[in-house]
Amino acid sequence: MKTFYITTPIYFPSGKWHLGSAYTTVLADCIARYKRLKGFKVFFLTGTDEHGSKIENNAKNAGVTPKQFVDKIVADLKNLWKVMDISNDKFIRTTEEYHQTAVQKIFTKLYEKGDIYKSTYEGRYCVPCESFWTETQAKDGKCPDCGRLVEKAKEESYFFKLSKYQDRLIKYFEDNPVFLLPKFRVNEMMNNFLKSELRDLAVSRTSFFWGIKVPFDNKHIVYVWLDALTNYITALGYGSDNQKLFDEFWPADVHLMAKEIVRFHSIIWPAILMALEIPLPKKVYGHGWLLMGGDKLSKSKSDAVKKDVVDPFVLCERYGSDAVRYVLAKCGPFLGDAPYTNETLISTINTDLANSLGNLHSRTIAMIKQYFKGVIPKQNVLNETDLNLINAAKELQKKYSEKMDELNVPAALDEILKVIFAANKYIDLTMPWILFKEKNMDKLSTVLYNLAAVLRVCISLLTPVLVKSGKTMLEQLGQEVIKNFDKLEFSGLKDGVPVLNGDIIFPRLNMEKEKKELEKIAAQSSKEQETKKENAVTLIDIEDFSKVKLKTAKVLNCEKVENSDKLLKLTLKIKNEERQVVSGIAKYYKEKELIDKTVVLVYNLKPAVLRGIESQGMILCAEDEEGNLSIVSPEKSIASGSTVR
Fold first, then answer.
1. Using one digit for the tens of pLDDT, what is the confidence trace for 552-600?
2. Full-model pTM
3. What's the pLDDT tens digit per position in 411-469?
4. d(Cα 418, Cα 399) in Å, to the nearest integer?
5. Rounded mean pLDDT of the chain?
6. Of these four, 255, 378, 481, 521, which has the most CB atoms within 10 Å of its CB?
7. CATH fold of 358-492
8. Other CB atoms closer than 10 Å to residue 614's CB: what's the count?
9. What's the confidence (pLDDT) of residue 645?
């Protein structure tokens, strides 16, 4: 049996999942389902990349261990894949023991071969992308991929001899023109990396601890990208006692990903495989970005979206997972970047699913019920109009398969839509209601048979995308779900079987009403995110807390700051020292109330000038949910200048 191995990049669990996270996996799932229906034995891999300094920092800020931090987010991702009907054969987590053991074996093998050596790394590092950059690449001190500021880094590191494979990589690109797709990505990689100085790659870190330890040097952690990239072979058992899956499915048929990580997959990963003497994947495909407001949709930027709903859980619940899958597959950024808006979502559902496919399906079933007592009639005499539609349906599978084999899912869906449009036009041309009125039942029988047969072909080809609704629509036509596309013949429609009643699968949406509802949902989500950020607790070490010096202080004098309704100027006594502090508590305290009161002062706060007055510290206040302030004072009388611990 022919095999097909498709992978998505393993996802970095740094926050809430969004449509950008789902796009690659939905696309890969459509391709995997198509290949299964073409008779391939498919292995579809997805998962999570759970190591690195960013995870360690996020976990620390959340007050949990890195494993606890990723466990919850990974559970959400697995749930999302279930909601969106993702049919992956395996979900790999880089925290799993078998993967970590295999990575250590790979690292050791490369070291013993002489392809890894120890030195010192000095340059720029992007923590969110976990990417190393030279000063030249990090223009204006920013990451070329995500645009965030990168930090300077200098630390002892092990290096992989990437430069050793530069010429070999160039030759591989030249000898294998379909290795990297779309083809314009080849020029990007050749001009930006391969035909300039290809530097050796730092493949270990010592500045954090959350990762796989270098087996022969425990103070070093394996660089997260070396760890992550190898998942494509460790998931198949490479480096274990059972490499049956590896022997069966490697090399991968396609690594599918967004364009910003093409460099890792088309240069670094092939060089590692060359060093390991393992065949390279057959294809690396880097699709464009899903854009919101002209910018890449990412976890960090999605929080700022005020208008467009990007939460796939919300959208699937509201419109159904099939509709969301279809919109992503049809309108996603397959070649270049593509914008996403609420309007794109609604208009695509209306135009393609409700008005075209849904309308053809419901009209055909309604006419079979009305004119033939709900039983699919036979095909009789054919004329040119009939043959034009039949030939279009017969040619469809070939055109569709060509596009799917090119991984161009949007173009494949376009081919289906052309036939659906033709079928709707066929109704206008043949006018079944006139045929019935004229009692031309032979011709009417042929027309409705042809419409049902076209629907069967189109819906069957849509089942890799419309997983649930495709099955339902075929059942309403009284037809079985196709399990092998090779048996999908136009003449395969069963006549004499009853059509079934059922709800409209894709009801037409009111554009303005839906836009308002989605904007309301987006605004609420944005408000919740802002509240969450405001309430977020950043944990500090005892060393950090020890830097803050708190002392008791007695208020000697208090007066209002001129031209201000909020500020009071307090003269404080701290043991034998006097200081003045400006505080925004005038709304809550009268001047006389504070004289002789003992307060708590942030003693070592850098002075600030407020309304022209130097404030030498800050007094502590408690604030309730309504914003009311209350000064923090010792429970019992205590000397001014006492240390607060």
1. 999 999 999 988 888 999 999 999 999 999 998 998 999 889 999 999 9
2. 0.81
3. 999 999 999 999 999 999 999 999 999 999 999 999 999 999 999 999 999 999 999 99
4. 11
5. 91
6. 255
7. Isoleucyl-tRNA Synthetase; Domain 1 (1.10.730)
8. 12
9. 85
Please state the separation of Cα 311 from the chain's center in Å: 10
Q: CATH number of the domain at 542-644, please?
A: 2.40.50.140
Contacts of 416 (CB under 8 A, 6+ apart): 396, 400, 458, 461, 462
Q: How far apart are CA 557 and CA 551, in angstroms?
A: 18
Question: Residue holding tokens 């389902």?
Answer: 33
Q: What SS3 state is found at 255? A: strand
Instruction: Please name the amino acid found at residue 316.
Output: C
DSSP letter for 149, please. B
- Residues 461/488, Cβ–Cβ less than 8 Å: yes
* DSSP run (H or E) holding 102: helix 97-113
Could you state, in order of their start, the residue ranges of all structural domains in the chain? 358-492, 542-644
Lowest mean pLDDT among 205-214, 334-343, 537-546, 623-632: 537-546
Beta strands in 420-483 (DSSP E): none
Whether the domain at 358-492 and the domain at 542-644 fall into the same CATH topology: no
CA 253 to chain CA centroid, Å, is: 22
Cβ-count burial 579-609 (b if 16+ within 10 Å, e if not): bbbbbebbeebeeeebeeebbbbbbeeeeee
**What ranges in 277-358 are assigned the alpha helix state H?**
299-302, 312-319, 321-331, 342-348
Would the CA dihedral through 162, 167, 170, 174 be positive or negative? negative
The answer to whether residue 487 scores a pLDDT higher than 90 is: no
